[in-house]
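Severity: low
Component: inverse-folding endpoint
Summary: output formatting inconsistent between runs
Steps to reproduce: submit the following structure tokens with default settings.
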């Protein structure tokens, strides 16, 4: 018996030791991968010879360190390595990783930049090129009357310019207007085109920009396999077409990476709630599809040795369906690593697998080093590997046994959010407080949406009707995903402003690291001194609770607000306790709808559309969805005709009556008095007909008077100047987003105290022009511009005008 007991104790001791080893993560490859990533991020925009030099020195140094230390294959039994040996080993591995990615990156950069294409771009040469389409064409609407913009990447094969024909593999970005056939190109098709090369920004993957002259000529369509996947994608889009708007956008996004159908306001809400990764193919989708395939082949009784090959074949098919572009390949690799991380049997190898995956992906595509998507995907996977299992176990230990699974369900989004938060701050300058809860609620819905969507995509070439039926099964969880995002975006304090840029990311990283390292100490202290916790909660609540007039939005007593809607105009005038006037809607529905929600608008007594350029009427759907609109007041000039017709159609479908306005008309709407100053009966000669036909409104609310000038140009401004001569205004809505085409006499003649400019950040028009800003400030006006100040508002304190910036 004693012998038996001793044997049992020994076995138990070995099991405990194995469990401890399994719980310990293998960190040896993580630091080298992170160091190599950081070095490549800094060097890949530079010349290839720098990468070669750094890579060669790093690789040579790593080799010398390895030989000098006499490292070789590990012995079966040996003493634990000393700390100094561990440090030397990490340094040597880091140098080896730097050498690997730098030399691989040098090969890519040398291939991309060989030849005269980059030089021709600097010279603005006209060229004829042959190349392969390497991304899906992206169609972007523009905030004016012009056609949408089409952007795609092209890997050149041959280029002719300056009397020379060369073979080249240079990557170029194509940028042109829609309507010439570029938006219809298929991925991996070979095309010929002519155009002018332009220089790109320093640090771009593309060596030049091609501005085409005319449509492309398709020389060779994609191969048979890719043509088949194109057919599946097209049929799948037809299958989801009858679904509700949110589901119609989310299901193709999760299944084939097609986000073109996602409503813009839903995209904004998913970004605000930290759910952006659910609107397109990500590592979690790859893991779901892979896991579902594994269960399917196991249930079908497939032999064990054939299961992995069949799952891999299915994964390859899924990647082809989504397009094996860098972002999808990254998702496939990270999804596989994440699947390993969530498996308790293989958790120990997941961290080395992540390090190897990072190094492998950087060798295949060095430009991933500068990709925010790659950073988010890698950090989310790192969070799953390091924290999801211990946090899940810790949470489960405090729950009843039947609710133990809640621990893992909560730990997964929490770990991913903590790891990704610094990069999210870099992207949007804010912290979302609802991301963990939103992702926790969304987690059970992702699997049925993705799996049923994949089934619908597979069935679509065989039977469109059957595929549509299955797609309706995916529609309900997808619609619920959309509702979670929309409701979460409206939660008070769901998004908190943070320090912008790298400083904010570093600050959040430091705070997160401090909390993680000192968390056990604080937990112990709070257990012993509960009043510390109550005091801390009270302090935080006091700091976050908005004091009247100091950060609360909307500010008390606001009279007019300017909405940050990008490159466009959207202004809101308060006409009563619960009603407003809206002047223009911006280019997209999402931002203006969010602005109205934040202002707590439920009724619009008067919707004024100054003219029919899309940067003033494109967001109409957002206003109609967010509030009840009594009447729409329109410019009498229907230019551009297509946009005007679409706008009138949307108003008609919503049952909103429309009224055309001309100069001389006066309206009393609630507490607001509105006089129409322009346009008159005779059109203005010169400039843009649509811009000069803008409604110019003299609006008075109590003692506050403002002049709203639409997009008028100097020709119409002269007429307006004569009509308003001698009037004093408190506010001036600056014409045409602060363009250089201002009438100085009109601007100074208003004697306004505040100038409001609706303008988009980093817009391509150069708005607001320096000359316009100089003119406004020279006239003594406080300039509020939505590209810098965000949402803005003006209130009144007795005789004083008070300005409020949302960014404060």
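Observed output (run 2 of 3):
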């Amino acid at each position: 018996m004693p012998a038996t007991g001793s044997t049992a104790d020994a076995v138990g001791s070995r099991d405990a030791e194995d469990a401890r080893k399994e719980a310990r993560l293998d960190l040896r490859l993580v630091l080298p991968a992170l160091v190599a990533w950081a070095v490549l991020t800094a060097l890949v925009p530079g010349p290839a010879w720098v990468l070669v030099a750094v890579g060669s020195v790093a690789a040579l140094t790593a080799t010398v360190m390895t030989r000098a230390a006499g490292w070789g294959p590990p012995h079966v039994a040996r003493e634990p390595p000393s700390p100094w040996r561990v440090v030397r080993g990490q340094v040597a591995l880091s140098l080896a990783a730097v050498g690997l990615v730098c030399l691989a990156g040098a090969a890519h950069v040398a291939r991309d930049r060989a030849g005269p294409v980059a030089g021709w771009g600097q010279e603005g040469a006209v060229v004829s090129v042959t190349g392969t389409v390497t991304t899906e064409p992206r169609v972007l609407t523009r905030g004016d009357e012009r056609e949408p913009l089409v952007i795609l990447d092209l890997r050149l094969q041959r280029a002719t310019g300056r009397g020379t024909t060369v073979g080249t593999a240079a990557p170029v970005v194509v940028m042109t207007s829609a309507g010439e056939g570029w938006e219809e190109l298929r991925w991996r098709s070979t095309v010929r085109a002519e155009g002018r090369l332009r220089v790109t920004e320093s640090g771009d993957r593309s060596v030049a920009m091609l501005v085409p002259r005319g449509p492309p000529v398709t020389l060779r369509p994609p191969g048979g396999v890719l043509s088949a996947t194109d057919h599946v994608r097209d049929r799948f889009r037809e299958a989801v077409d009858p679904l509700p708007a949110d589901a119609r956008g989310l299901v193709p996004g999760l299944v084939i990476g097609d986000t073109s159908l996602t409503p813009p306001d839903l995209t904004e809400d998913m970004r605000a709630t930290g759910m952006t990764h659910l609107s397109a193919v990500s590592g979690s989708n790859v893991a779901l599809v892979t896991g579902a395939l594994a269960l399917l082949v196991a249930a079908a009784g497939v032999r064990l040795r054939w299961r992995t090959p069949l799952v891999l074949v299915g994964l390859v098919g899924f990647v082809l369906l989504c397009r094996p572009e860098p972002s999808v390949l990254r998702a496939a690799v990270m999804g596989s690593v994440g699947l390993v991380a969530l498996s308790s049997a293989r958790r120990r190898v997941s961290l080395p697998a992540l390090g190897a995956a990072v190094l492998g992906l950087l060798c295949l595509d060095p430009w991933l080093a500068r990709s925010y998507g790659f950073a988010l995907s890698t950090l989310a996977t790192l969070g799953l590997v390091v924290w999801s299992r211990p946090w899940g176990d810790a949470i489960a230990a405090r729950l009843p046994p039947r609710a133990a699974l809640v621990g893992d369900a909560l730990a997964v989004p929490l770990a991913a959010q903590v790891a990704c938060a610094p990069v999210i701050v870099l992207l949007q300058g804010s912290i979302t407080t609802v991301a963990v809860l939103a992702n926790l609620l969304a987690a059970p819905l992702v699997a049925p949406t993705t799996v049923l969507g994949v089934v619908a995509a597979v069935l679509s070439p065989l039977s469109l009707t059957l595929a549509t039926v299955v797609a309706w099964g995916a529609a309900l969880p997808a619609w619920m995903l959309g509702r979670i995002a929309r409701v979460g975006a409206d939660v008070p304090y769901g998004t908190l402003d943070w320090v912008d840029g790298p400083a904010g990311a570093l600050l959040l990283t430091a705070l997160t690291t401090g909390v993680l390292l000192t968390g056990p100490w604080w937990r112990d202290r709070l257990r012993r001194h509960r009043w510390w916790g109550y005091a801390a909660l009270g302090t935080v609540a006091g700091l976050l609770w908005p004091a009247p007039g100091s950060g609360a939005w909307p500010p008390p007593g606001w009279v007019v607000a300017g909405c940050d809607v990008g490159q466009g105009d959207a202004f809101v005038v308060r006409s009563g306790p619960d009603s407003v006037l809206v002047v223009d809607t911006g280019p997209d529905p999402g931002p203006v709808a969010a602005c109205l929600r934040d202002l707590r608008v439920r009724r619009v007594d008067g919707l004024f559309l100054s003219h029919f350029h899309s940067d003033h009427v494109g967001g109409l759907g957002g206003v109609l969805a967010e509030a009840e609109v009594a009447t729409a007041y329109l410019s009498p000039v229907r230019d551009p005709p297509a946009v005007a017709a679409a706008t009138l159609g949307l108003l008609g479908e919503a049952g909103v009556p429309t009224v055309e306005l001309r100069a001389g008309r006066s309206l009393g709407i609630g507490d607001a008095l509105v006089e129409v100053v322009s346009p008159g009966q005779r059109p203005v000669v010169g400039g843009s007909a649509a811009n000069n036909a803008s409604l110019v409104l003299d609006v008075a609310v109590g003692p506050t008077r403002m002049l709203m000038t639409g997009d008028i140009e100097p020709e119409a401004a002269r007429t307006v100047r004569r009509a308003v001569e001698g009037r004093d205004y408190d506010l001036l809505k600056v014409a045409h987003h602060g363009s250089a085409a201002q009438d100085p006499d009109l601007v100074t003649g208003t004697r306004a105290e505040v100038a409001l400019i609706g303008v988009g950040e980093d817009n391509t028009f150069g708005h607001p022009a320096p000359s316009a800003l100089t003119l406004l400030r020279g006239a003594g006006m406080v300039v509020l511009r939505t590209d810098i100040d965000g949402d803005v508002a003006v209130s009144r304190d007795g005789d004083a005008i008070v300005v409020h910036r949302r960014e404060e």
